[in-house]
Amino acid sequence: MKFFNSSKEKENFDEFYQKSSTKELINYINKLNALSIMFEDEKYFTSQRRYEKVPAIDSQTARLLYFIALMKKPSNILEIGFGSGFSAYSLYCGAVNNIRHFITYEHEKKRFTRGKKYIESKKIDIELIFDDFNEQSIKRLMEKEKIVAFDLVFIDGVKREYPVYFDQVKKIICRDSILIFDNILFNGKLLVLNRKKDGKNTEGAKILYSFNENLAKDKDFSTLFLPVGDGIAISIKN
Known about the structure:
By secondary structure, this protein is α/β, with parallel strands linked by helices.
């Protein structure tokens, strides 16, 4: 298939493309996504992230989560790390017509209290648990709610605990379940910290680096790593 009628035409195209900076192109895509997927309370969540320094996903990650939930149509959703609530809200909006159970964990008191208040004010059917995620807790809840397995799990808890979360979550999902891991780039410092011998956050970064490598090699899952936000890994159980 021929795309250009002459070498001059190709040169003109190359010159135009080179003049369009990566930042401009990304801003253009982000603008289109904002026009396509709009969240009623986006300003509320971005304000927490920007001014109150609450650990939270960015707007483009929120849109990705929404779209995954929209395509997957999950009935049982689990989240590890509620944070500002933007991720839970995004997933809920995408899967709202199919959700039977949505359980999310948050161990920090202030975030839990604020999140609980927001969920109740919006009458959103999400169960927010004030606790560290652990296998015993989730299995009790699954037995209580008669949940056989989760078909979508979003993991955004303590980064050094990702291997532990993964081992525990594998036991409560089914074939074709989707696992989403946030912040796989460790606030953009993964490679720098992984090269260091010691120092603050070095151990956590090395654990996460190893986790990413092992996840990529895991034949029980098909995984796609994306440079969205602080890095996202999307795994589907084979």
